[in-house]
Every structure is written in C-alpha cells, then in structure tokens.
Amino acid sequence: MAASSRAQVLRLYRALLRESQRFSGYNYRTYAIRRIRDAFRENKNIKDSEKIEELVNKAKANLEVVRRQ
Questions:
Q1: Global pTM?
Q2: pLDDT in tens, 8-63
Q3: In this predicted structure, what is the pLDDT of residue 69?
Q4: What interhelical angle do 49-68 and 3-20 show, nearest 10?
Q5: Domain Complex 1 LYR protein spans what residues (predicted)?
Q6: What pLDDT digit, counting tens, does each position of 54-65 carry?
Q7: DSSP the chain
Q8: CA spacing 20 to 30 A to 60: which of 9, 21, 24, 39?
Q9: Which positions ≥6 away from 25 have C-beta within 8 Å?
Q10: What is the rounded (10 degree) CA torsion for 33, 24, 57, 40?
C-alpha cells in the first residue's frame, strides 16, 4: 500500500471513530465503534489497490451516513 493510501485510510478510520463518538445512545455508540474497528481489522491485509479503493469509497459513504445521524 502506498504511503498516501495508508495515510488516507488512517484519516478515514480516525474520522469514523470520532464521528461515532457523537452518538448520544450508549448502545449505538459502542456498536458503531465495534463495527468500525472490526471492519478495518478484517481488511488490514488486503494488498489489491482496486479492492482498497473500493473499500475506501464505501467507508467514505458510511462516514457521510454517520455524520447525518
């Protein structure tokens, strides 16, 4: 993974965790944090740049959904 891709993924990960902290309900908040961490851990060994790009785009869409909540 290129350094810029790694930095982009890390920024996205932090942004998702930061936004999920804003959920007022404890159960929603902990569920969102757990799902984010599990998804990133599950996909941490992917080397295919097309697959990484697809996952990054999916995460960006999910970030927008979290921000609207």
A1: 0.87
A2: 999 999 999 999 999 999 999 999 999 999 999 999 999 998 999 999 999 999 99
A3: 81
A4: 20
A5: 7-65
A6: 999 999 999 999
A7: --HHHHHHHHHHHHHHHHHHTT-SSHHHHHHHHHHHHHHHHHTTT---HHHHHHHHHHHHHHHHHHHH-
A8: 24
A9: none
A10: 0
Cα–Cα distance measured from residue 32 to residue 28, given in angstroms and rounded to the nearest whole number: 6
Q: Are 51 and 9 in contact (CB under 8 A)?
A: no
Domain ranges of the chain: 6-68
Q: Are 17 and 36 in contact (CB under 8 A)?
A: yes
Q: What is the distance between the alpha carbons of residues 58 and 24, in angstroms, rounded to a whole number?
A: 24
Contact 5, 52 (CB under 8 A): yes
Give the separation between CA 48 and CA 51, rounded to whole angstroms: 5
